[in-house]
Amino acid sequence: MGPKGECTSIGKTGARLILWALGTVVLGASCSEPPQRPNLLLISIDTCRADRLSCYGFELPTSPNIDALAAQGALFEEAQSPVPITLPAHASMLTGDLPPTHGVRDNGDYRLGEEQSTLAERLAVEGYRTGAFVGAYVMNSSFGLDQGFEVYDEEFGSPTPGTSHSRADRRAEVVTERALEWLAETDSRPFFGFVHFYDPHVPYAAPEPFRGDFAEDAYAAEIAYTDAQVGRLVNALGERGLLENTWVIVTSDHGDGLGEHGEATHSFFTYQSTLRVPLVVRPPNLTVSLRIREPVSIADLTPTLLDAAGLDVPDKLAGQSLIPLMTGERWNSRPLYAESLTPTKFGCSPLLVLRQGSDKLILTRRSELYDLSSDPEERNNLAALQPERTKELRDSLTALLAERSQSAQSQRDSSAADQDRLQQLGYVSDAEVDEALRFDDGEDPKDFIELFETTTEIYTHLRTKRFDLARRLCESILARRPELVEMQYYLGEIALGEGQWSLAAEHYAEFLSAQDSFSRNANFRLGRGRANCHANYGLVLAELGRMGEAIAQYQAALALRPDNASVLNNLGFALLITDHLPAAIRRLERSRELEPNTPSVHLNLGHAYTRRLATDAQPGDMRAATNAYARALELAPELHAAAIALARLRLAQEREPEAIEQLETARKNAPSPAIDMELAWLLSTSPIEQVFNPTRAKELLESLPKGETIAPHRIQDTWAATHAALGNFKAAQDHATRAIELSKASPTISEAIKARLQLYKSEQRFLR
Q: Distance of CA 766 to CAs 519, 687, 726, 754, Å?
């Protein structure tokens, strides 16, 4: 703004003012001194529509802090994302390229390849310190956006009590705190900071006072809350004297549908409701404000920040620096590309976009053409009325794809841990996108949007364990579209969540039996879903005791996704309990290699190494078993089976005091009836005088919850040994008799208890 707070156009006077202001930042005090690099701060507000910010004309005061930045810089009225999906959009933002070039086309199943050069990498080489602070797991370093960052802060931890946040995201205030701590560090180097706020993403649940201040608009409340965090960052820069040499950019990865065109959130359609994003660029020491109408892309941000730092912008990038637009210099106007391959997950045509000026083509099964200058809400499809213009734009789009598409090393199989966290955010379906870009197969996305939204509801209900609601939606879809056999898969997931093993098995079998015809006439591209169906079918078969069939399903799942650590773990356990020990150990060790922080795989490996000690011991098995159990406990102190197994290994090594200490420590860390019972058994049957303590054993047994059903014959057997140790042989005999009755199904156990009963009848206690 000028001295009176007026918006200034980009005429020659404004251009000269901006050139002067930008020049003071880049050139430094004199030509004889080395250039002073400016600091760079890029703030991305996830899922933020431009038209919900007050500086873009929204009627509610959602963005006073961003408004203030716009008053000191440039507001781009027509900024666009190349894809309405978080990970690929940020890949474009941080590389300066488009999805067909950098290769990241969706969340979860892609990783930005090492061959790609990020903004952080380019700046780090030039002496910048680099730090990123992200608000959700969808931006996790496992997906490759950490390249070039010295600090990549992504610790999500546990959800905040009383909030909707999961262990896969965190409040903007937490992200801000981490960023401020980093900014406060003493370092003479210029910085590049990337801050990602996730809060405007569903579910909308802003904290007070924003929730109350915007009670009629929960989405606006989230934006206002996030804007306050933007203010904290900018104010901190000012207080530390850094703002006068810092470029601040605020933007978003994509918008949100909010019900427009039938789309509740984002990722499916490519209308402006989800492609148009805010973009405010605030250079240092700028004394005018600008509103720029030229359509630009968030892929332009990497070139812009390189230019701001005085660095060369690679010619090969799709994006270009926005500084010439701000200074009135020569600007090469070019068409903007966007895409959504999400519809292909459901057997629909992809959506490819080319925007040239105000004309926008959406290429799909039934293509669409809009004039955004007269029809910003995209209600009047001109494709049939203007076939020549439609063909012209389609030819330009084809040429752009031919130029920009390349083979990027980006696809990856998301791990079970990735899927779990992304599902908490509502991101992951069990389908995979189709990059073939076929426009004549399947349905037009416009015809599928209602089913897509219903499917999204099913995911939400599954995630929040509202199984009845999810089941009703599945059944309603099957009633209308019986050929959509993938609903049988979701019904299986529902039954699995409810613990209805037999019902789940029926649904999974129904889905898999239709697999051949399904593959030829796919409505949903359940690539990962087929593997998951086999994996979960294996789980329910194992619960039903059909272990051989379970193993076959696990193997079928691995044939589709060989490096699924969760399935390898489950298969390893199934092979272990069916006495296929070498094969079990191979699968479990591979699972540990893929997911080293999964407690259950360490527990299962401990069991496997222990089993091998008794059959075909290998050098180091005792140490390997001990280490596996110890690691399982380190990762999950509540894993009492590991504590008990580790104590038994100590006993096998004649280190009984250590075994007792192990159980006492486990009891303090995570109390458990199983731990108490094991400890009571050791204390009442120990042959070592300093360990023998039947009184303490009796106290532990008396503290067991009433009606405890964990191994009831073990409880009775332990009571018998404890009474005998205390000299109460009649009570010992009574408990031993009950234990024998309860263990009839296990002859070996029953015979051992009978032998102990004979000792009690002879008034002798049992010694291990």
A: 63, 9, 11, 12
pLDDT band at 1 (very low <50, low <70, confident <90, very high): very low
| Predicted TM-score (pTM) of this structure | 0.79
Q: What size, in residues, is the chain?
A: 768
DSSP calls for 696-708: HHHHHHHTSPTT-
How many Å apart are CA 31 and CA 535, to the nearest integer?
66
Tens digit of each residue's pLDDT (9 = 90 or more) over 568-625: 999 999 999 999 999 999 999 999 999 999 999 999 999 999 999 988 888 889 999 9
User: Per-residue pLDDT tens for 239-294?
Assistant: 999 999 999 999 999 999 999 999 999 999 999 999 999 999 999 977 789 999 99
The pLDDT of 62-91, averaged and rounded, is 97
Smallest CA-to-CA distance from 666 within 701, 705, 638 is with: 638
Q: Is 95 left (phi over 0), alpha (psi -120 to 50) or beta?
A: alpha
Encode pLDDT of 207-230 as tens digits. Answer: 999 999 999 999 999 999 999 999
The one-letter code for the residue type at 571 is L
- Pair 303, 318: CB distance under 8 Å: no
Average pLDDT over all residues of the chain: 88
| Cα dist from 164 to 151, 201, 206, 452, whole Å | 27, 11, 9, 24
d(CA 729, CA 719): 11
Q: Which residues of 426-464 are buried (b: 16+ CB within 10 A; e: fewer)?
A: bbbbbbbbbbeeebeebbbbbebbebbbebbebbbbbbe
**Which neighbouring-strand residues pair with 79?**
277, 296
Structure tokens at 428: 């992951």
Compute the distance between CA of residue 433 and CA of residue 527 in angstroms, rounded to an integer.
9
The CA-CA-CA angle for residues 199, 203, 207, to 5°, reads 55
Distance from C-alpha of 439 to C-alpha of 447, rounded to nearest angstrom: 14
Cβ neighbours of residue 32 under 8 Å, at least 6 residues apart?
Answer: none
Confidence of residue 413 (pLDDT cuts 50, 70, 90): low
Spell out the residues 6+ positions from residue 131 whose beta carbon is closer than 8 angstroms to its own: 149, 150, 151, 152, 153, 179, 182, 191, 192, 193, 194
- Please determine, for residue 164, whether its predicted confidence score (pLDDT) is greater than 50: no
Strand runs labelled E in 624-690: none
Q: Radius of gyration of the chain from Cα atoms?
A: 32
Environment class of residue 375 by beta-carbon count within 10 Å: exposed (0-12), middle (13-18) or buried (19+)?
A: middle
Query: What's the CA dihedral at 655, 656, 659, 663 to 10 degrees?
Result: -170
Q: Which long-range contacts (CB under 8 A, 24 or more apart) does 696-704 make?
A: 697/722, 697/725, 698/722, 698/726, 700/676, 701/676, 701/677, 703/676, 704/673, 704/676, 704/677
Confidence of residue 2 (pLDDT cuts 50, 70, 90): very low
Q: What confidence score (pLDDT) does residue 433 get?
A: 73
Alpha-carbon distance 598 to 590, whole Å? 12
Which residue type does 435 have? Answer: E
Distances (CA, A) of 42 to 39, 48, 234: 10, 15, 11
40-44-49-54 Cα dihedral, nearest 10 degrees: -50
C-alpha–C-alpha distance, residues 335 and 392, integer Å: 12
SS3 for 317-374, per residue?
A: CCCCCCHHHHHCCCCCCCCEEEEECHHHHHCECCEEEEEECCEEEEECCCCEEEECCC
Phi, psi of 354 (to 5 degrees): -130, 120
Residue whose tokens read 């809400």 = 377
Provide mean pLDDT across the span 308-319.
Answer: 95
